Amino acid sequence: EAGRPRYHVDFGPDTLPAETGDLFDEAVSLTKGCYLGQEIVARMHALGHPKKVLVGIRFDDDRLPVAGAPVYEQTDDDATAAPTAPRNNVIGGVTSSTHAPMLSQQAVAFAMMRWGKHCLDTRVAVPADGGFTEGVVQSLRFLP
Questions:
Q1: Could you give the angle at the alpha carbon of 83 between the alpha carbons of 78 and 84, nearest 5°?
Q2: Which helix (H) or strand (E) holds 100?
């Protein structure tokens, strides 16, 4: 709920700093002098964006997706499909999920999402409990 992804769970040693979403601004200095890894950080910042980024997803109900579950883009066509209908547009993957006590046990998750599909308010569908649960992409912090 507090928006704190865990190292070796939601991201790891193979993750570029720019892929950590909201954590990048808190943890990385673009004005500090030389440091190990500074060149790749500066290059990524100057050239634009990473291929993927860590985001939060707030689901519409309490069905909990498991880590590794694919995240599908929710389209208007999907709204009329059966809840177990296969979707073919994978745009990311769940890294961790939980029920949020401060949000009435609503399911929330962190997911590594493809750039361009990571935008706030993007509707998504994720397999959970034998069907699909739908949600919306948001920042890593679930509480105001």
A1: 105
A2: strand 90-100
* CA angle (82, 100, 118) in 5-degree steps: 60
C-alpha–C-alpha distance, residues 72 and 81, integer Å = 14
Distance CA 136, CA 73 (A): 10
Distance in angstroms (rounded) separating the CA atoms of residues 139 and 117: 13
Amino acid, single-letter form, for residue 89: N
Is 66 within 8 Å of 94 (Cβ atoms)? yes
List residues bridging with 110 in a β-sheet.
56, 96
Residue 21: both structure tokens together:
């979403």
Q: Please tell me what DSSP assigns to residue 119.
A: -
User: pTM for the whole thing?
Assistant: 0.82
Reference 21, options 69, 56, 47, 46; nearest CA is: 56
Q: What tens digit of pLDDT does each residue of 61-92 get?
A: 999 999 999 999 987 665 555 555 556 789 99
Helix (H, G, I), strand (E, B) or coil at 72: strand
CA 121, CA 30: separation in Å to the nearest integer?
A: 28
**Residue spans of alpha helices (H) in 49-106:** 76-79
